Amino acid sequence: MKSAVIVFPGSNRERDMLSALEKITGKKPLAVWHADKELPKVDLVVLPGGFSYGDYLRTGAIAARAAIMDDVKKKAADGVHVLGVCNGFQMLCEAGLLPGILMRNEHLKFVCRHVKLEVANADTNFTRKYKKGEVWRCPVAHGDGNYFTDAETLARLEGENRVVFRYAEGTNPNGSLNDIAGIMNERGNVMGLMPHPENEIEALNGGTEGRALFESVLEAVA
Amino acid sequence: MKARIKVMLKNGVLDPQGKAIEGALGALGFPGVAAVRQGKLFEVELAEKDPTKARAALDEMSKKLLANTVIENYAIELDEK
Amino acid sequence: MKARIKVMLKNGVLDPQGKAIEGALGALGFPGVAAVRQGKLFEVELAEKDPTKARAALDEMSKKLLANTVIENYAIELDEK
Amino acid sequence: MIANDVKITPKLVAEHGLKPDEYQRILDLIGREPTLTELGIFSAMWNEHCSYKSSKKWLRTLPTTGPRVICGPGENAGVVDIGDGQAIIFKMESHNHPSYIEPYQGAATGVGGILRDVFTMGARPIAALNALRFGAPEHPRTRHTVSGVVAGVGGYGNSFGVPTIGGEVNFDESYNGNCLVNAFAAGLADADKIFYSEAKGVGLPIVYLGSKTGRDGIHGATMASAEFDKDTEEKRPTVQIGDPFSEKLLLEACLELMATGAVIAIQDMGAAGLTCSAVEMGAKGDLGVELDLDKVPCREDGMTAYEMMLSESQERMLMVLDPAKEKQAEAVFRKWGLDFAVIGYTTDDLRFRIKRHGEVMADLPIKELGDQAPEYDRPWVPTPKAKALATSDVPAPNDIAETLVKIVGLPDMASRRWVWEQYDHLIQGNTAIGPGGDAAVIRISEGPQGGTKALAFTLDVSPRYCAADPVEGGKQAVAECWRNLTAVGAEPLAITDNLNFGNPEKPEIMGQFVGCIQGIGEAARALDFPVVSGNVSLYNETNGKGILPTPAIGGVGLLPDIALRATVAFKTAGDAIVVIGETKGHLGQSIYLRDILKRREGSAPPVDLAIERRNGDFVRGEIRSRSLTAVHDVSDGGILVALAEMAMAGGIGARIDPPRDLPLHAWAFGEDQARYVVTLPEALVKPLLDRAAKAGVPAARLGTTGGDELTLGTGAPISLQRLKAAHEGWFPAYMAAPDLMDTQ
Ligand SMILES: Nc1ncnc2c1ncn2[C@@H]1O[C@H](COP(=O)(O)OP(=O)(O)O)[C@@H](O)[C@H]1O
Ligand SMILES: [Mg+2]
Questions:
Q1: pTM for the predicted model, two decimal places
Q2: What is the ipTM of this complex?
Q3: C-alpha distances in angstroms, D469 versus D463, D466, D554?
Q4: Which of B15, D68, D171, D286 sees the fewest Cβ atoms within 10 Å?
């Protein structure tokens, strides 16, 4: 599988993502600069975590308007897989590729800890290697992960099984609506989530259940 | 030319900061605070002299960047002079 | 009674947010944006009817919570009516 | 706009924190009255913060060399060889006074400053730690300071992208008006690609990098060495704002630039920014420096030479550049959207010359600015030895178990989870042991050997010991640091120190300083644990009351194989529990005595460095031969607290049979040094005890793990649930109460 990770000024988990992708896919992913106009031909585009542009305006807001984003939208429309993690999820929402928005955490504090994630939909190209209802451990590290959207959109997301991951067993760390941790678009090729599967892939991390997410895409595009 | 752009969350949109401040004000012993909403204020200095052109540009900026019109309203104030 | 509290960084205090937004507006092709400063705006609804008392309370709230008076100035606007 | 030729009055001199005799020294040195800019430059170079004028004499006594030391004190940070052509670069620095004035920004810029020190030398930061000291919990300002400082440390480190993996938090009334924020950072570099501040070559361009210059923190450096009093308010405008986003760009740009070979010398702008950095680079290289301030990128209009030379705007660097690579270098910085300007060049006349609007605003002898700074041998009196406390003078509690529950929930003993969950301690994906253990462990993934090597980090000091006995306290701080590294299986390599004390002009405070340094030196020598960098923060007092002597020690250790690491958590039921080291039941200055009996008495626990080393080497050897399942050193609170921490961490209880030869409370809460609690499979106990006996290391069976309760002999069991509730409960409950501090 060929993959690319977009690097924005202030991205800071791009190296985590690059090494996770290499360890799992066995192929070195490409690092693409935010100012480029066009993405290389790849099967998976990743918007990594961090504090793009300091997240000073709204998280992900400025990055969502970077030069490269037009091509990200084009590729998404062509069916290329797009994954946004943490700040990347916030960008996808700001760019309109996913509905809703990530608001400041309920308690207003940055939170870094391991949470429990429930696979709400295992029938996606990002989760086919998980079982529905499966609960796994994954770290979060964010100040703005409090998913919010209007009632109709929420109803649609739920109705169309587009909520992919939920915080389980009372571990919702940010006040997110319906314990939402990750969602996808109608077509199912664009997903965003707040937790960091790229930091749960080897024994050193204390768990490896984040691998299945990447292996799912790997299998889907094979 | 100077201008101010006021960006507030639309009604019904969750405002964790406003909520927290409401709570804190209560705890600090300020009674009768019915509601608090937190928004943003941008002070912008423009080269543009013409008010109509300036307003148009500011409107663009707000739509394109300063406000997320899905959840936020914005209002533009020009210092005419 | 409704009121607005405007909180801005004191002059000369670095405003990283404003700086980043300035840059972004430039990149988005908005010319002639000389300077951007970002501040906070609080809309507060008070039970208090008496303007003087309300203003006093708002001043307290600003000092104690809404503004960091070490680096920020604040201004209070009351909707008299 | 301040004129440069104002008359220099005694008042003006005093306002610059210079004593009359120091001003006389200036007059003698330059043979004329200084301009205002020159006075500002002297005040910056000669204040305590930059000149170390009170501490130099004593710092020289510390051991700073060793087989692995590549660069000791004197550069931006210390450099230590970790093999495979790699080096670890680290330092700790205080931002106490700014953090008291504006907790969030003060702490944030403190973190920013120390990160800059590390990547200025060519290292990519891989770990950040922080040692925090606050006033008594009930003091009206404490809660406000805690929340601001913790948010600021996290706000900067999280955005910059370095894992914040450890530190300390203490509360004591002596910090009521003067919190301590000591930030530690470590970075990884190739041992042969380290960058220094010494300028080389005449007529080479001096380049300004990073953010623009504003009126931030003008006189911050002077403030950082000024005692606090009521007019602290007036000092407020000197607060600087941190911009972690720009710092991240600066990091990437600097590392990219260094890779091109364009950098001849580089120095970050810290306290008294442009002045200290430019003078240091020139003086170190025996070169003069000429700067044209008109070229300095400014954020504000009409800045004077005086303001520009003293500005402490953050996220800035100064660099001597290979002229041949100037264009290439500029391109890198433009790509990252940072300012890049040639603002001067090196000269051969050993002058520090500053021009503004074509006029010379300052023209000073560059070497004398540093070398001729005043140096004091301040009078000091040794701290009177507190007399030892007989165990019989310390009443036992009527219920040991209940007392334990109290202790694990004390402000100084409760879990710091509330703090470190606000820090991204997982970013970079190399965190093998995060906050909450004895030392944090980070995998070193780069380098030829691949992922097996790791580094351990910890910060330690027990101020109450230092107050009772500076020498023993200084020794203990180093010993506990060494012990925490050993407890995870690391070989202790070197330390950095952050010496926080009161007003050195008071002989008894100076006595504390001298005593602690003596103790630190002794321990560092005995444990082959050299001091490679550090920072001194004096005048930490408010209205004349000094803080507890607080020489924080930051240690780095090496694990050759990350698989051979130990953690504090009990692993399985049925493991044997053994204590390594001798328990005498020293209750003087213990947590039990201070917080349960409310008595600050007795001598600090003595540290026998030979025993410390013997016991530690034994434990490390056992960890590396895979015989142990859990390890925890015994520190604050004593052995029973250590056991409780191991049980809580593992969610597994234990049955303990205390020895009969000591009063139970002395055994349980005594704070004797050089001890570790370890667990291992039953079958391995006998061989372990034999090996210990052979090595002359005291080792005794304590009990067995299992269940969900802690049971002491025949006493009533305590449920882990209750212990956890007390241990995890205090911090969130404390911080949940409203912050009543009026920020005005
Ligand atoms: N300010 C802090 N930031 C991050 N971690 C901290 C901080 N303060 C304490 N900790 C962590 O809490 C744990 C307990 O601290 P401490 O009691 O000082 O450990 P020890 O007694 O082993 O020195 C340690 O793992 C330490 O790293
Ligand atoms: Mg320890």
A1: 0.94
A2: 0.93
A3: 10, 5, 20
A4: D286
